[in-house]
């Protein structure tokens, strides 16, 4: 608080501005609360590490036999995030150690004779097992010995959320990480830079493809046009003009870029697990009643 004013938790002010309570009420009515603000730390509530929003995945239920950590109700939130990202039982990543749980054997779907078996084959990605083990370790490894509040993955996720929510520049994020690391024991696992945080988060399978584009929106420098340096419609430059003396010292930067989030890896993960694959064909297989309002897919 600042006198009679309080921080405004609306989605526009994001707890950065102090306003009168009635103004806060108007803002909340107009634009709503800031997303994922469950633990009211900006209004005097103590920090609760267990109150952290789910930011990855959409399924809230996973059968116990499908999870290497057991019942989902007993998982920590970062373990749920790893499972949502990969969506496969742990035994698939370590075939040399088969599960002793007979229920896990039922997760291998056997298609009928009139079905196409290749459609149900699990997606195999080279290096998937190694990435999964790295993220699995980060989800279980505490930030430092005997730390009960945070694991490496949960700490990185929270720093990434803070950076995005408050639009912190990379240099500021690096300084915060280095300062926080200096206050921790020497054997801590907190990354020392934003770059290393991105390396860990990228293993969750959230790829982003950068495609150079014409500044005027005429075209994308993609596929057969990937090597072009000028727009074939307006003739505009693809790259920023760099002084001749600096051309050898730095890589050319595009004037405009498009950031594409591929949907194929997410669909492949959904089809890799029978717990989610059966829901992918719901729009085709579900029954409808002609006398009742139906789903738009009909």
Automatic annotation (TrEMBL):
Residues covered by the Transposase-associated domain: 2-45
Biased composition (Polar residues): 91-110
UniProt cross-references to Pfam families, sorted A to Z: Transpos_assoc
Signal sequence coordinates: none
Record-linked InterPro entries: Transpos_assoc
Chain intervals for the UniProt region annotation (Disordered): 90-116
Protein's name in the database: Transposase-associated domain-containing protein
Organism: Cuscuta epithymum
